[in-house]
Amino acid sequence: MGDRILEVEHTPGEEWVVRFKPAGLNWLPDETRKHLLGARKEFLLALRSAVDQAIKHADEGEKPKATRRTKIKVE
Known about the structure:
The chain has one helix and two strands, in the order E-E-H. By secondary structure, it is an alpha+beta fold. The model has no long low-confidence stretch (mean pLDDT 82).
């Protein structure tokens, strides 16, 4: 990862990988660090929301689907 604070990997059609290294913020001014840490919190809240939505979607997929019965006359 080197000395980067934030690293993002993405391959189209695949997952996103975000690496955040808060220890790397020590060299930044206090105000900048405060903004970046606030942004980290907002990112985590957005991630929580996305995970909640994924769980909801998974729960809906597990519900048994209603089947429609059709009578077939066999001779």
